[in-house]
Every structure is written in C-alpha cells, then in structure tokens.
Design goal:
It is a single chain. With about 110 residues, the chain is mainly α. The chain has one domain. The protein is about 70% helix and about 5% strand. It is built from three helices and two strands. A two-stranded antiparallel sheet has the order 1-2. A hairpin with a 2-residue loop joins strand 1 and strand 2. Helix 1 runs antiparallel to helix 2 and helix 2 runs antiparallel to helix 3. The longest helix has 29 residues. The chain is elongated.
Length: about 110
Amino acid sequence: MNEEILNLWGLVVTPWKIIGFLGVALFAGRWFVQLHFSHKARKPTFPLAFWYMSLSGSLLVLSYFIFGKNDSVGILSNLSPALIAGYNLFLEVTHRKRTLNGNGDETVESSP
C-alpha cells in the first residue's frame, strides 16, 4: 500500500496517503457539520454525525500513522482523539437509547 500511484509536482500519492487525507478531511469536516447544526438550533450543538466523523476520521489517520508511515508521534497524537470520540459516541448512543425507552432523566444530581 506504499507504492506510488500518482506523482503531482513532487507530491507523492500512495493508497495510505489517500486514507490519511480522507481521515483528515472527515476530522476537519466535522466542524462544518457542527457549525451547520448549531446555526440551525441557534445554540452550540454536537449532532451524532459529528461524533461519527470524529471517530472515523481519527481511526483513518491513526491507521495511516500505524501502517502507512509507522510514526510514533502521529500515533500518539491521534490515539487520544480516537478514544475520546469513541467514548463520546458511546455516551451519545446510550443516552439516545435511554431517552427512546423513556428512561432518560435529564436532571443531574450532585452528591453532597
């Protein structure tokens, strides 16, 4: 997957770079999705698509750094966003399931 498939003015394109570029586009594009939904709701909003794009973009970039480039700095810098996006996606999906089942309590209780 590291074989050159295109060379544009010194920019070497490999299948792994395409995966990495796609991951970066998803990870960056999530903010435009968030901006659109926040503008529509007239308040800060993080739709489910934001978390799916965060997780998939992070995993694509992480796989590029693990398998395509084998760069420990890239691996470490993309591992935590992938874990955090996965956790937030888990929270969002379980919250939506509880809400659909009628068990979603929106109140937050503080302990003394």
